[in-house]
Structure formats: structure tokens, C-alpha cells
Amino acid sequence: MFRATAGVHPHHASELRTDDLPRLRELLAAPEVGAAGECGLDYFRNFSPHADQERAFRWQLELAVESGKPVFLHQRDGHDALVAILKDYLPRLAGGVAHCFTGDGRELHDYLELGLSIGITGWICDERRGQHLRELVREIPLDRLLVETDAPYLLPRDLQPRPAHRRNEPKFLPHVVKVIAGCRGEDFPTVAAATTHNALKFFGFPDAAAR
Ligand SMILES: [Zn+2]
Fold first, then answer.
1. How far away, in angstroms, is 147 Cα from ligand 1 center?
2. CA distance 92 to 67
3. Ligand 1 centroid distance, CA of 117 (Å)
4. Residues 21, 17: Cα–Cα separation, whole Å
């Protein structure tokens, strides 16, 4: 079972034109497309000017509202601006996920208060950069937790044995779930079942809500 997302990453925000929006609207209406995104703000790389990023983000939020599908949010160094924009659409939006969450406690609780789900990747397996996430992941309610690969990026750093290539793959997800479960003091089957259920529901797989 697969679902796609459809959207324009903030890196490419400047390339998105009003002429493209009907095509994006069409993609979002397809049953195989489960969410709008990745969309959001990346003020870390700044590959597109902030004004372009904000405009493209608002367009995609509007399309997400229209489609009745949730948003798959990318954010780096743009938390406050993203929250301010998101608040204009949230009452009409079918939810969203803060994808590849690597932020601090304030950001986490802002997202939780807004009703978002939180996507955790193999970043949490990084003994240097992921240390704070190991604490914070305990504060995410189990029904708001999603596990992501971000493949081909973010190969978990503590895999044993270490793969010869640097490419991340979905087959390493159970390892990430094990690390998350360990941090939360929960067992692997509990976290695996809950996050699978959450993902099925988020991406609109049939009958997921009943499982
Ligand atoms: Zn991203």
C-alpha cells in the first residue's frame, strides 16, 4: 500500500506560479494522494526568498483546505512565521504533520497545541544532534506520533552493522521505532502498532479509522 503527497517544497517556492495551481489541485484530488506537501518554510537554506516561500505556502494551504487533505509540513528556522501563517488556515484544515521534527520543546508544544502530529525520523538515532529529541519524544502523545524515513536521507547513525552505502531505506524503520520505544519506555509492538495506525489514518487509507 502506498500513498503519495503532492506539493512544492519551500526550496522551490519561487518556481511555483499561479498557472501551476490547477495541476496541483488536480493531483490533490487523486485518491492516491494522501496529503499536501512537503510545503512550508525553510529559512535555513533560503533557496527561495522568504516572500516567495510564504506565498507558495499560503497557496498550498488553500489547496489543502479545498481538497480536505492534511498538510505535510517542512520547517527549518522558520517556526514562528510558519505558525503565524498556519493559524489562518487551521480551522478549515484537515490537520497536518510537522515532518522530520528536530526542534526544541517550545516548538513541539506549539505544534501539539495546534493539533498537529509529529514526524520523527532517524535523526533521533544521532548521538550528537538527536540527543534533545530523545527527551522530547516522551512528550508526544502516542496518537500524534508518526515515524518517517526521510529516505534516501537521514540514515540512522547507529545501525549495526553499518550499511556500506549511505542511502537510507524504509527497511530501517523498525530500528528507528526501537530507539523511539526505548526513549519513551514503551515496548516495540506498542509503538509500531500505534504509529502504523496513525500513518494509515493520516494518509487516508480505507478503514484505517476503524483499526
Ligand atoms: Zn522536509
1. 14
2. 11
3. 15
4. 7
Cα of 39 to ligand 1 centre, how many Å? 8
Integer Cα distance of 83 and 114 in angstroms: 9
CATH superfamily, domain at 4-210: Metal-dependent hydrolases (3.20.20.140)
Q: How far is the CA of 78 from the centre of ligand 1 (A)?
A: 13
Dihedral sign from CA coordinates of 66, 71, 74, 78: positive
Q: Is the pTM of this model over 0.90?
A: yes
Segments making up each domain of the chain, as ranges: 4-210
pLDDT tens for each residue of 20-52: 999 999 999 999 999 999 999 999 999 999 999
81-122: per-residue pLDDT in tens? 999 999 999 999 999 999 999 999 999 999 999 999 999 999
Q: Report the alpha-carbon distance of residue 117 to residue 99 in Å, rounded.
A: 8
Q: Which three cell numbers stand for residue 71?
A: 498538510
